[in-house]
Structure formats: structure tokens, C-alpha cells
Amino acid sequence: MFLLGSGFDFPPIELASKEGILAIGGDLHPSRLFAAYQKGIFPWYNEGEPIVWYSPDPRMVLFPNKIKITKSMRKILRDSTFKVTFNQNFEQVIRHCKTVQRKEQEGTWITDDLEKSMIILHKNAIAKSVEVWQNDKLVGGLYGIDLGNLFCGESMFSLVSNASKIAYIALAQKLEKENYPIIDCQVYNDHLASLGAEEISREHFKKYLP
Hints:
Helix content is 31%, strand content 27%. The chain is α+β, with helices and mostly antiparallel strands. The radius of gyration is 17 Å and the shape is globular.
């Protein structure tokens, strides 16, 4: 495990621990965050704790053309009950991701500093969002880092049933049309696995980094 200094450099991701921990310390300056994602590294920690930087092996990813859409979900999409937009309300999306209650999870990894830096990255067209609306109310969405050929998903939220699934499906379909090879989902998650995400080795994942 490495202790980060004031610069924005990171050690090679192959040096991460078995748990995927590569380094601790540093800060959440937008330039450091952007440098991290470009190298396949992301911060994951609780407020009040040192910043921990991860590069897990295996890595959870979605190949956009492998998105799984059930018959019931196809019907929901056809019914046009929900409206999907892109980058229309990033700040509200990240705020919901930060504050929504999640089962078996205390607190949030989206700290005030991370939120501020992500908003700066959004204003520089690096962090992007998907919004899901119902009756003109924001009911679901997700956000992440767009590296140009790789989208690094960070967090999603849902205030009504299926809203986050709709955001995820819409993102996958959009990125498939734009020839993005994968969406980074970071670590294994049953919910994402049910939608087609799968684990690949860190070495395989590295091939998709810019």
C-alpha cells in the first residue's frame, strides 16, 4: 500500500493488495480524480476516514451490447411512463446518490469534497449523468466519469421501482451506439450482474484504459 503525496501520480495498479487497495491519502482535487480514473483507480472510503484508492481484481464491467432487458422491463420502456435525459441535472443526481438510503449500508462514500470535485468535472464535460423523470419529477439516475472510450460508473439511485434500471439501460444503449466497448462497474454487485455486468481480470480491464 502506498501513501500519496501532493502530486497527482499513482503507483502501477498491479501493485494493489489482494483486496484491491492501491494507496491511501492525497486529496480529491478534480485533477487527481481524473488522473486516477484514467489509470483504472477510484476512491472508496467513508467520511472522516483517510482516502483509500482502489483498483480491484477482478473488475466488474458491462459490455454495452450484453445488457439484459427482461420482457417486463421492455414493456415498461415501451409504455413511456418514464422520460430519460442526459446531463440535464447532474448536481441533483449526485445529491440523490449521496443521500438516498441503501440497505445494509451506513453513511455514504460520496463526501462533500467528492461531490464538489465531481461537479467541477461535470462543468468540464468529464463527469456526466443520466436522469430518469416521472411526471416531471426526478425519480432515478446515475453518474460517472466519461473517459472518451470508457464510462466509469460511480453511483445510481432510485426513488421509484425500476428507475435506476432504466437509467442503466439507457446509458448502455447510448454508449453502444457511440462504440464504447465497456462500462466500468468497479466491484461485483448482484443488481448489476442481473443486468448483464460481469467480472473480468484487471489485466483485461487495462486494455480498455485510455
